[in-house]
Amino acid sequence: MNRFKKIYCRIFQTCFKFALPFLPYRTPKIINSVKGIPEILEQKKCDRVLIITDAGVYRLGLTKRLEKALESNNIAYSLYHDTVANPTTDNVAEALEMYQKNGCSAIIGFGGGSSMDCAKAVGARIAKPRQSLAKMKGILKIHKKLPLLIAIPTTAGTGSETTLAAVIVDSETRHKYAINDFPLIPRYAVLDPKVTLSLPPHITATTGMDALTHAVEAYIGNSTTPGTRKNALMAVRLIFDNLTTAYEDGGNIDARREMLKASFYAGCAFTKSYVGYVHAVAHSLGGQYNIPHGLANAILLPFVLESYGPCIHKKLYRLALEAGLVEKDTPYDEAAQIFIDAIKDMKKRFGIGDTISEIKKEDIPKMAHYADKEANPLYPVPVLMNAQELEPFYNLLMEKEDADESI
Questions:
Q1: Measured between alpha carbons, how far is 404 from 355 in angstroms, rounded to an integer?
Q2: CA dist., res. 75 & res. 39, Å (int)
Q3: pTM for the predicted model, two decimal places
């Protein structure tokens, strides 16, 4: 990255960091069970609600407890269950039409990050009916209050129930972009471990490592606060203590509950302190090939951490200490490598590889361009990189024989 762009990025990030205490961040109110939702809807005088989920969640019957609770309290609902892994503008348009056709007054995002992002985007379109989602891309473009928004995470990873971001894919161009504004933060987050019990081991692993990526990138960035550092450390400790148990014993409700807490804390950390190049590259892969976001993050995380070098060793030492991987007198560089190796071991344990077979050499410049555009200047990363400097990550993730042929 050239010198002038670096200066611009760092000035932008410094100004944003100083503005943090004055920005209208809020933490969603926590509900411990879906059975508590009808009371909230009655308090807010919402008698018709739109539930937004995906086909997998719907097929598993995970919404049934919520549906029964609504029916028992005479609250009408409509259910949109076609959200795809990386929600598209078409998903948003279809769900919006259902909301309007059925006279709904509240939205429940039920599922992983995709369902919650779709729900947020529908809320944004309701708040600003004359503006396309593309016009809301970036930061602080909404400004208006959304309908009542409740988030019910069925995976312990995305943290979307706490964040001001919705990530959407343009159905025509396949460009994946983020919409960031404070009204997108859900009013309520339902942390009910029972809705996560049927989550398959692979999804448990990748979403858990998604939460780990949120916590790590928030902690090593340059815009942390005492609060975000505390949240990130708590998330890392909970993940290292509980993710393997949740993966190996999906019915362990205590591990599931602790992972939901970890995801929530990680979400609280990164919604203020932001993420980094792991996310920027992962988003471009999700937009181009529909790679699940948690999987892309899990594959990329150790490679990006290694690329940052010594400037993050002290911070990785602190994370390693919190995770119980090192002693206090461990040298920073050694602790950093132990932490990165622990992430690599976690990937192996969960059957997560180091490559993405879908990557095509000719797509890399475009994806790197999108990653550069997303991250710079917004993400306060430890080391700044431009599109050309991000391209090696895509090459690293290519299947080896494909990468060799392209040399």
A1: 14
A2: 10
A3: 0.89
